[in-house]
Amino acid sequence: MSRKTIHDIQAKTGKEKITCLTAYTAPIARLLDKHVDILLVGDSLGMVLYEYENTLPVTLDQMIEHTKSVIKATSDSCIIMDLPFGTYEESKQLALKNALTSIKETNCAGIKLEGGTLIEETVQYITERGVPVMGHIGLQPQSVIIDGGYKIKGRDKFEWKKYIDDAIALERAGAFSVVLEGMAEPLAEEITKTINIPTIGIGASAKCDGQVLVTEDMLGLTNISPKFVKEYVDLRAPIEKAVKQYVSDVKLGKFPEQQHTYQMKPSIVKDSK
Question: Which of left, alpha, beta for 114 (phi over 0: left; psi -120 to 50: alpha)?
Fold first, then answer.
C-alpha cells in the first residue's frame, strides 16, 4: 500500500472524516501508521517530550530529527511537520528556505504554519514553489505570549470575521487544509462550510472535516487534560505496574531468568574443565 498523499486527504472532504494524531517517535508512529490518515509531527513535542513550558523553544533541528524518525517507522499515513516558532515569520524567503530544508531532509508530505491573513503572502510564496502547506488558525500555541495564554476563539460573534477571513486567505494562498484549534463550534462550522479545503479540528467540535489530538493526551500519558481531550485509555497504570514488577523481580533475583541469559558454547565449557 502506498503512502497517503495530500490529494488523498483532500478527496475525503465532505465524504469521510479525516483522522489525525501526533507522532514524535518511531515506536508510537509505527503503532499509529495503519490506523490514521495523517500523522502530525507537531511542535507540541516540546511540551510532551521535553517538558518545555510552551512550544516556543522548539528548534527546526529538533523537528527535522523527530520527523525523520517518524518517516522511517511508517509507510501508510501522510506525514506533516510543524515549522516551529521563529522559522518563518521574518520573511517569506526564510520561510521557503526552512520549508525546503524540512521537505528535503525528512521527505515529509508537507509543513504546517500558524497564522491567517498575516502569512497569506508567505503561504502563497511557499506553495507556488512546490511545498504543500497545512494552515493553522484559531488558538495558535506559538502566539501564547502575545495572546496572554491559551484562549478559546469565536465565543463572541464579533470575532468571527477575522477567523473566516483567515481561513479564506489560507485557501486562496494554496494551503491544502487548515487546522482549527480552540474554536467555538458555530464558528468552526461556518468556516468549514465557507472554504473548500478540509478543516481539521482540535477543540473545534465535530463540525470540522476531521480531527487531531495529541496522542499522549488521548492515551492518558500526560498530566494536561484540556476540555477537548477524550482520554481513550489510561496507560499510566499498566506502565507503572510493569515497572514495579520489573523492580521487584530484579531485587528478588527473579530477573533475568535462564531464558534471558547467554551461556558459553558447549565445546568451550568442555575444554575449560
Answer: beta
Cα–chain center distance at 73: 15
Closest CA to 47 of 18, 24, 67: 24
- Compute the average pLDDT of residues 44-49: 98
* Mean pLDDT, all residues of the chain: 96
Domains of the chain and CATH, by start: 6-234 (3.20.20.60), 238-271 (no CATH)
Which 8-state DSSP code applies to residue 183?
B
- From 63-67, 112-116, 264-268, the region with the lowest mean pLDDT: 264-268
Beta strand residue intervals within 42-146, DSSP E: 78-82, 110-112, 133-138
pLDDT tens-digit readout, 150-164: 999 999 999 999 999
Catalytic residues: 181
Non-local CB neighbours of 249 within 8 Å, separated by 6+ positions:
255
| DSSP classification of residue 56 | T
